[in-house]
Records
---
Amino acid sequence: MMLTDALSTCEQALHNPTDWMPACQQLANILQGVGQFEESSEWLSLSLEPEPDAVSVYARLGRLYARQESWPQAIEAFQQILNLPRGHAGAYWHLAKIYEHLEQVEKEFDCRYQLFALRPDEASGEGYYQLGDWFVEQEKPEEAITCYLHCIEYDAHFWAAYYKLGDLFSAQGECEQAIAIYQSVLDQDPYQMKAHFQMGMVWVKHQDDELAISKFREIVSLNPEFPWAYLELIKILIKQERWDDAIATCEAVIEFVQEYPWVYSHMGQALLNKGEVAEATACYQKACVMRGWWQCQENGYQFTQDSFSFQIELWLKHLQPLAEKAGVQALEVGSFEGMTTCWLVDHVFTEPEDHVTCVAPQFLKTFASNLERAEADHRVTLLEGPVHAYLETLEAETYDLINIQDRCKEAEHLYLDATLAWKGLKAGGMLLFKDYGWRGAKDPRQAPKVGIDNFLRSVKGQFKILHQGYQLILQKGEG
């Protein structure tokens, strides 16, 4: 008889006193024959028990099945223990190890969570932290919070756990709890700049501008070279239409800290709102040059806003394969002044046979003039009119790239954009969404992520995500 057969026989005999002794003895003989003398002795002892302990028996069976890599039987044995009044902690431990071996991450971490709840001493700060991260990925914030709280109980200086807790509380709208978490970090180390910054970001999220301004100014007084505090401070000043204060802060960053592209982008926004168009344009050009788009300044492109240049590095990474092909076809939905279009013809669609089609309800006059400056108007077609009406006419698998730049942020509108455009995308082609991570509208209909996620569910299994952040970049499957 094979070992696995003997294990099965023993398991079946567990509740039958008549069969129990011979089944155990047979198993003991087989174990002795394969050199597992200690296990053989233990099963001989168990055969003499008038009422065998089910927890002990199932645990031994589970371990032996696992050694034979009979994973379904091992899992079943340990799960049997979970139906009994005791022995759960050990069963969860063994199940977690089996699921780890089988790379079934969700089941592994669920077992670890149950184990830690029964035996906190089995865990460590790092163990709780990893478990918390997994629950965050599974979108189970309450369980994640519990794990991070246990983590800092084990290690009061485990700063990363504090920050994860603060993020979770803030995301749930629990402003006071988030602030308390960051304050507990600062009580231990007043120079934890990240804790100061995250506290300020909580006030930004909950639209308490004055407290946020106060906190960001405190940060730059403690650490004048902490750039992100300046960035958030400038954003709030622009939001409050305090153009001169915003410009002065930008100038201070440039003079006393460092020249950052984002400083010029925001200064351009403030200057434009003051009516200083030429100065604003120069700032936008400077930001683009600093991000590697030197043609923006050389060609003298005229833009009245910059909502793109911070994505240049991302686009270079993912769109480079298109630059290496000829005859590439692209579609832009919702183009404005042509900032993305000009960058594309400067860096990706550079061959004479490459072509970009732009469709929008209306184009600004500056779009055409920018295309002339790019000397690419023959490679770009502008179609003005109802966007969805055009998308409904797309021929299947026409475009290598479709860039959804639609300024409308309503969920239903973007869902329709994507659904109609999908048919026109070639297998292996890329689909870009400009505003996937956009937040801030009070109108619940203005939720780009909701509409785009609904689209993703409708084409589940037909794409690969290349990038997911503020922008979303998909690649259509070949099948």
---
Amino acid sequence: MNLKEIRSAIKFVHKTCKCIECKKSYLMDNIHIIATNGKESLMELKCPKCKLSVIVSVTSGLEHELELQDHTSTSAISKNDILDIKNFLTKFDGNFKKLFNTKK
């Protein structure tokens, strides 16, 4: 997407999208571009009222097509979560094939 298409996509999202939880409209400050390429932009929308986050994929073309995906995290990361990740990474040998191999 070029800059003009990105601006158009942001305006389109701002006008047409509302929070799926509380139905509040998004403010322009609540729309964040995560990534963009030739035909698509990925944006995060964060509700100013209930703080729900959703990811929106906007595809350029004659009309914008929206895909909403809920990526809500209702729990914070705890100290134990961080320690678990640290312990895993300390022992992890970098072998992703072995890690994701489901055959035993």
